[in-house]
Amino acid sequence: MEVFKFIALSGSLVSAASPNNHSYSNILSIPQAEWVALNNTVGGRLQGVRPFEIACFSRFENRPLTPSPFNCNAVQAGYASPTFRSPHFNAYMMPHWETCQTSHQGCLLDDTNPKNPAAFNISNDCSQGSISPFYIDVRTERDVQSAFAFSARTGVPLSIKNSGHDYKGRSSSRGSLSLWTFNMKSMSYNKQFVPQGCNVSYNAVTVGAGASWQDVYAFADAHNLTIVGGYHQTVGASGGWLMGGGHSILSPALGLGVDRVVEIKIVTPDGQSRVANDCHNSDLFWALRGGGGGTFGVVLDLESTHKVEPQLSLQVASLSFNGTSTNLRQFYGLAINNSVKWGSEGWGGHIQGTALIYVTPNLSLDEARESMKPMSNFILSQNGTIVLETLTWYPFFLKYVVAAEAAVGSLTILGSRLVPKANFDTDSGKLQLLDFMMSLVPQSLPYVPVVPPVNFNFTEGSTSVTPAWRSALWHFGFHTSWEFNSSISDIQTQYAMVHNVTKTLRELTPGSGSYFNEGDVYELDHENTFWGPNYSQLLKIKRKYDPQSLLDCWQCVGWKGSDDARYCTRQVLRIVRGHRGSKPIPKWPFVLGHRDGAT
Ligand SMILES: Cc1cc2nc3c(=O)[nH]c(=O)nc-3n(C[C@H](O)[C@H](O)[C@H](O)COP(=O)(O)OP(=O)(O)OC[C@H]3O[C@@H](n4cnc5c(N)ncnc54)[C@H](O)[C@@H]3O)c2cc1C
Prior knowledge:
By secondary structure, the chain is of the alpha+beta class. The strands form six sheets. It has a five-stranded antiparallel β-sheet with strand order 7-8-12-10-11. It has a five-stranded antiparallel β-sheet with strand order 17-14-16-15-19, with helices on both faces. Flavin-adenine dinucleotide (FAD) binds next to β5, α9 and β12.
């Protein structure tokens, strides 16, 4: 059995683990009899695993290794492809979460040219980094129950991975036993789905823990349905996306993922398999509707059931132009000035650099043309491109999302903030926002998912996401990245930049919050920022269902803190802040100003 061969080989990892890496040396010192017993209870689906890129390297954990050119070629060819990465347990969409960033331990290739030999030359050691050395390919609730019992008995920490999209690396964890839910792909449709114990029915689709959004969109389209989901083909439909909130460009009209889920099946860390809905375990259901993945339990096969709509006709506006320092200001100014009106018409979408792509199910094509006129006139004046057309969701997704596939494999980090409608209500508020956007331009063109559920009639108190979602018009993002061979100091600078831009956004939007799944890795006051007044209740529910704190993830509900060795990936900014060094955080060159006049 592969896993036992791996345990024998892992002796070198134990000796390589530093004394501080308590949790890492812990997992590798577990007696073989424990692993045998675990493997027997999970149907032989316990696996030992090494890093995704190992085939390219000639050293692993400071020992010589024979590279495998054939396997290395395959990894190099698929390095930037989400569909290549997602079926590999040991691959993450942002590969820095495969490594220990504080010590440069990992096996990164050059994402701009994966064949660049400088990344894997003879002097470069590949190491296990943050890849769990063992995982269970989860298929049944018994697998999860066995893992919880194993963790309680041995002290080995657990982690949960689905697609590996998480922007904060919460699905990788050094020295953990990982539960990989990716292969649970079931999907079913029920016109009259009745949540267990309830007496209402919904037109609903039920999806397995590992189903990706592209799978689900194809399934919904084949049944002539529209379902609200993420803007990327390999993001999972039932995992972190859903439990963190789940935005879609249809959310302004149809709500967040958490607004549309009607039932979740989950195994909680106390070993119980539970159905959570409005009538059954309703406290847990509320917590799962925004409290975040990875902390309340493991969502399982036939797991989350989502309300669907009959097939909707969507008006699509896709506009782009060549940007300059002067016309960019006009473009962003127009987007800001029209946002309240567009929000009331159900438009949602993305403003990305010099392009805008919006959809709405609430207008006819003529109304959509009229609504977009101020922006279309501007784009025409810049000799840009305008497409206004009517599509249903899946053809839209294939044409505009898959065709312009967001590249993965880069070392990218993100910060974000929900921008309230109040910022768009006054000239000074709009001007501040515009100045802020322009201040970003030299570093990175602004990225604004226009996804808050402004037009959706939600039920007060039904979800645990921050209430800031309900009063926001924009979810403003900022990202940056570094190179495979960047120094720790360069990486610190990038984290500090995102941290400081987010801080400026916070000052611009007092009292608002951020999206748990896409916030700054080093978000200050994260409980309040991600959940606001809901946090204390979420914590009570976490303690009720996970009394031994078997699940822990970065800035999740009940997080134990950053000192644990499993977070070796994320202690970089702590060094910047002076906990372990003295490097000052660079200031973002933006000062909040007040100017009069229209934007
Ligand atoms: C390219 C890209 C595009 C994105 N687009 C969108 C978008 O359009 N809308 C949006 O809202 N977000 C988007 N995101 C963010 C996305 O929602 C988060 O990254 C989310 O955490 C992904 O969840 P996952 O389960 O697919 O990923 P993973 O990284 O596998 O898991 C994320 C978290 O969920 C937990 N988890 C996963 N499965 C389970 C389970 N079965 N039970 C319990 N916990 C589980 C993990 O432990 C981890 O904490 C995008 C991210 C990327 C990288």
